[in-house]
Amino acid sequence: MIFSYNWLQSFFYPVKSSEAGAKQFNRVNKKLPKPEKLAEVLTMHAFEVEDVKKAGKDWLLDIDVLSNRGADCLSHIGIAREIAAITKLKVQNEKLKVKVKKEKLKAKDFISIEVQDKDACPRYTARVITNVKVDQSPKWIQERLKICGLRPINNIVDATNYMMLEMGQPLHAFDFDKIKGVNPKSKTKKIIIRKAKKGERITSLDDEKYDLDEDILVIADKEPLAIAGIKGGRKAEIDENTKTIVLESANFDRLAIRRASQKLKFRSDASWRFEQGIDPNLTETVINRAAVLIQEIAAGNIAKGLVDFYPKKVLPKKIKLDLNYVEKLLGVKVPQKEIIGILKLLGLKIGNWKLKILNVGIPTFRRDISIPEDLIEEIGRLYGYDKIEPVFPEAALIPPKRNENIFWGDKIKNILKEVGFTEVYNYSFISEKQVEIFKTTSPHTKNFSVGVVEIENPMSIEQKYLRPSLIPNLLSNVRDNFKYFDEIRIFELGKSFTKKQIEKTMLCGVVAKKTAEEKNEFYEVKGVVDLLLNKLGISDIRYVPLEIWDSGKCAGIKVNGKEIGFLGEISPKIAVFDIDFEKLIKQCSEEQIYQPISKYPAVVRDLAILVPRENKVVEILNQINIIGGKLVIDVDLFDMYEGEELPDGKKNLAFHIIYQAKDRTLTGQEVDKIQNKIIKTLEQEPEWEVRR
Hints:
The chain is an alpha+beta fold. The protein contains 19 helices and 32 strands. 29% of the residues lie in helices and 26% in strands. The strands form eight sheets. Strands 19-23-24-28-27-26-25 form a seven-stranded mixed β-sheet, sandwiched between helices. It is elongated, with a radius of gyration of 44 Å.
């Protein structure tokens, strides 16, 4: 906003508060810092001054007023108060007494007001001035308006604009004789503040036509005279024939003005100020000051008294300020005497105080101060931020407690991604069709259905139930992606929901292939689970027979004797693993025991065994590992055959058994001895036959 240097000076010339006249608006205080110095002072303590320019006999200062100070500093008086607080000068002539020439004239005999929307218009003040002479404004007023970017019109309109720039309160003047509304009781002219009616129109002072509606506040008689807080209308404008004026000084709700301004797509100097929020107690001060100025530059007689609507008065706030807190927040000890001095320079009132607690009264024009921290900010900026030495804060940096779920979840995801799996995210809902097709079952008892949770207000029929398992949605992913891929390896870490255990985090993965010639998806999934558990620091892993689906290839996963999930073959093409994540991470360990790779050669022996089809591979694996002991470092199933050449109900399993010692090279006799022991033990099962 542009400010006049000479105008700012006028507030520091020591004249009596009762003196009226043009002189008091144009005096110069030589003690005020020069423009360049003043710009530096304001920038360091209040607002940044973006530009300083010579303008004739005056100087203009382009000051960037912050949004929180728009209520009081979008005016010359507001900046003058800031200058006074910084330089310790005293502001003069802030309030003027109204000199009434004819006591018999009373404002209430001319005009009455009716406010229909008290929320949108909390205060409306009016004065009447008779016998005015409309003419050009004095040169000094015109020059100041031009410097601030406003075009002079006539002495009445210029006076209202001058007061807006000087005090921050927009004003408007109506030609009294053009107001048509009449109060039937008092027979006076009547002004109504109301919401516009749908379909009403108004022609503004610049001949623009606006369509109004119920969201726009207007000043009206029988028809709209002005758009409240935004723009005056042509109907009651001031012209060279005007003799009596009604001077308006009102307070409007900032949100109401903002909405109306946006709807009309027009913002004026007045609406800009109202949108910041203006002190309602300012209306009387400014209307009196404007009346004095008009009386001096346009003659006229000021009618006695105000017509004032102000049902709910705004009173000054009081804030308790702890001086110890000031030091703690600023990081520097400011003497108590200096703190009190700064607060007084800002126009704040200091009441009685005890020990280190001040009772501070806040003027209503300082709408930005509402809590102790606001006061401390004011103290800091006037004390001088340059006096506050930067000090590193003293604080103990305590590392946050690790979230185990996130830590192990990320680790698991990285492991699975390294072995070619892709993570997917699905909605936590399934359809009724999915429930029927999948028939979610418990890994403990065959065909034992887990109760699904039905949603009261589902978004669609495809999202009717909360998923009791992650598997149904993963199978849907497989179906959809078989269009593009021959092999799919996906996993998901997410929530499942059942009636008995409402919410549980599960880790579920799927390996699927379009063709299943080798039929090894089950063992591939088992290998993935083995790798995952080993990388999570888990060594005591066992697989136990489990009946879930008809394929017969299912196994429960036990870690340290506790069941954590299962893996199984849904069809010859698809195998899955389903692990309780919360149980899993309880068994995880970051401690890894690293052992050097044996420098001694390994010996591989093959073993084929004929077993009933219902026997699980894991049963044979467990036997071989137990009998072989430490010298059997790995057992791999490399072939499984079920054909016509075999006896009915039988299958052939072929294993690679790998022998290796850490401290020596194994002899053929040692390996044969262990191998024969394994064969002998396996053949103790009546229906098992080791093939030689």
